[in-house]
Amino acid sequence: MTFKEIIAELAKESGLPLELDNNGSCMLNADDILITLQYRNVQEDVVIFAPVTDPEKIARLNETALRAALSLSFNGIGTGGCYLGLFEESLVLSTYLSVQNLTSEGLAQKLNEFSQRAADVRDAILNAYQNIPATEISDGGVDNYGVGLSV
Length: 151
Description:
Blueprint: H1 3-14, E1 25-30, E2 33-40, E3 45-51, H2 63-73, E4 83-87, E5 90-98, H3 104-131
Helix pairs in contact: 1-3, 2-3
């Protein structure tokens, strides 16, 4: 089954208005997160990605927000194995799926999981941004911010 057929079947089964554009992409909104699916023909996979920072809530990605993102992405623990990166002043969560043996049900399950991860990452970054002072005192030593260690 082609990715276009999988998307058409998922749209029919879910009632979501999903349709691939000329670039092999489509978008959906889940929990106020804009999720994009992009088919990559050469790799025969699908990239699922979503910005997890909201410019209305985090006007500027400062050190606190970036430290929270790094802490979450350490070994993929806080991101459920997804990748977290910086793109055009936004933090973006992404994952990849092979289209080999992919079904509309399997894609729906992966989208639900990704949507929840993206919401969790967004909330964790926002909470860190709001709860930690934007200016941190540094004595030049290594602190254990976000690592979960104590000395």
